[in-house]
Amino acid sequence: VLVATGDLEFLAGLFAFGAMLSFAIAHVSVIVLRFREPEARRAYRVPLSVPVGGAQLPLPALAGAITAVAAWIAVIVLSEGARIAGVVWMAAGVVLYVVYRRRQGRSLRVRETVEPQALQEAGPIEYGSILVPVFGRALDDDIVGTAGRLASEEGEPGEAGPMIEALYVFEIPMALPLDAEVPEERLAAARQALARAKEVGEEYHGVEVATATRRARSAGAAIVEEARRRGVEAIVLAAEEPTRIRGGALLGGRGGARQRFVGEITREVIERSPCRVIVTAPPADEPGAEET
């Protein structure tokens, strides 16, 4: 509706109103939490923090809060349209918040917390069908074995046995058509990897192993699509190490909660998978570990 006005200055002012207010609240929240919960465990420490009143005052957050508040005030003073629409927007948000909290029977000011136990899945987890991507690496036996142990726990007398679906993905470069001929050595490597996966997986009682290949531009995307198409309960995946080019802790930095700790295939599967993902890998100093 607001875009239909076609007033670019009004839209820019309204965006600045909301953005500066959000930035100000975020910075103030960081400062307040440092005083309310000074002993809480934190994955990230703001640099240039100084001790004040038994807590650490993050100077960058303080400077950010002051700057954002000043910019927000400037928007209110200079943009009449944003001033009116922004206030109406805020008032509507406050009314909606009050109505929602009242209907839920909750206090307006008390913070709601969720116990860790409430976030855990209740009841046993079933793995009747497991997708296992194999790549012809030393770690394939470990991940197929992990899947076999999980699947063998699900077998019931008189029922069809649990299924492991071993998948080998041929990554086809963008320069070639998707149906381009695959070199014979790659085909032989795929057949060998899948045959080994079937041999290892069927060592577990009642477990059946089906094998398949897939052509794709991206191995991660192909694994996710196959998991969705087959309706599997889990993916057991061998995690490749992250590239050392990206920096972070590998270049001496201090990693945060969202640091890239795996390679691109594993990351894509974890982020897009429609089911549970079980990642396994040996320690980096063991021979089975590989660099990407």
Explain this structure to me?
The chain is α/β, with parallel strands linked by helices. The chain folds into 2 domains: 3-113; 129-280, HUPs (Rossmann fold). 43% of the residues lie in helices and 14% in strands. The protein has 7 helices and 7 strands, in the order αββααβαβαβαβαβ. The chain has helices at residues 8-36, 59-78, 80-103, 140-152, 184-201, 219-230, 264-272; strands at residues 49-52, 55-58, 129-133, 163-171, 208-216, 234-238, 276-280. The strands form 2 sheets. It has a 5-stranded parallel β-sheet, sandwiched between helices. A two-stranded antiparallel ribbon has the order 1-2. The protein is elongated and about 70 Å long. Mean pLDDT is 81; it is low at 244-260 and 287-292.
What order do the helices and strands come in, and which of them pair?
Blueprint: H1 8-36, E1 49-52, E2 55-58, H2 59-78, H3 80-103, E3 129-133, H4 140-152, E4 163-171, H5 184-201, E5 208-216, H6 219-230, E6 234-238, H7 264-272, E7 276-280
Parallel strand pairs: 3-4, 3-6, 4-5, 6-7
Antiparallel strand pairs: 1-2
Please mark out the parts with pLDDT under 50 across 5 or more consecutive residues, or reply none.
244-260, 287-292
Strand line-up in the sheet with most strands: 5-4-3-6-7
Query: Which fold name fills CATH's third level, the topology of the largest domain?
Result: Rossmann fold
Query: Which structural class fits the helix and strand makeup?
Result: alpha/beta
Report the order of strands and helices.
Answer: HEEHHEHEHEHEHE
**Quick one: overall form?**
elongated
Helical content (DSSP H or I, runs of 4+): 40-55%
Instruction: Characterize the quaternary organization of these chains.
Output: single chain
Number of helical regions: 7
Distance between the termini: 48 Å
Our estimate of the beta-strand percent is: 5-15%
Q: Mean of the pLDDT scores?
A: 81
Q: What would CATH call the class of the largest domain?
A: Alpha Beta
CATH superfamily of the largest domain: HUPs
